[in-house]
Amino acid sequence: MWRTTVDIERNWASVMAIADTQAHLAQFSRPHNWNDPDMLQAGNPGLTAEEEATHFALWCFFAAPLMAGHDPRTMTESVQKLITNEPLLAIDQDVLGQAAVRTQPMPEVDVWSRPLNNGEAWLIVNKTEQALQVIHHNGQRRLNNTALATIPTAARVLPLRGGEKIALAPESTREIPAHGCLPIIHQIQE
């Protein structure tokens, strides 16, 4: 394990700057070799609930060490549900140990893809100040006229703070809040 960035700050710009750095380091992450983008800021002042969820999901997709940077004695139930999210933790701890790669950087969104031992996972991150509508059409996620990722029909949307995986309905629309994310997984076997 080695640190790959400067110290994280308690703000969205810092989280996204570190994500940009990790985009160039995915090739070095594997079992016994972990990129450490610094501690989690979920639970500290400075990030909205959506930003905390995106921050945590990104770190899970990076196969990063998940070290809480907040005081657990004052942790809210919302933060507790987030950092104990079993589907996201399973992505972080997947035995392949490969970090996600940014497959499609765009001004509005980043699409991250991570191979898993039994499938693949994608994370669509909204970098804008407003909610975005992402359409699932003919097996593709689209933002306006741009295809974001080809996703198998059997893929599921992962919950961020508890709940069940949700099937991707054909011809459906999902809203990703400002600075929010949409984690999706396709598993060959559950």
UniProtKB/TrEMBL annotation:
InterPro entries: Aldolase_TIM, GH, Glyco_hydro_27. Keywords: Disulfide bond, Glycosidase, Hydrolase. This is Alpha-galactosidase. One of its GO terms (molecular function) is alpha-galactosidase activity. It comes from Arthrobacter livingstonensis. Belongs to the glycosyl hydrolase 27 family. It catalyses: Hydrolysis of terminal, non-reducing alpha-D-galactose residues in alpha-D-galactosides, including galactose oligosaccharides, galactomannans and galactolipids. GO terms for biological process: carbohydrate metabolic process. The lineage of its organism: Bacteria, Bacillati, Actinomycetota, Actinomycetes, Micrococcales. It is an enzyme of class 3 (hydrolase). It holds the Pfam family Melibiase_2. Its EC number is 3.2.1.22.
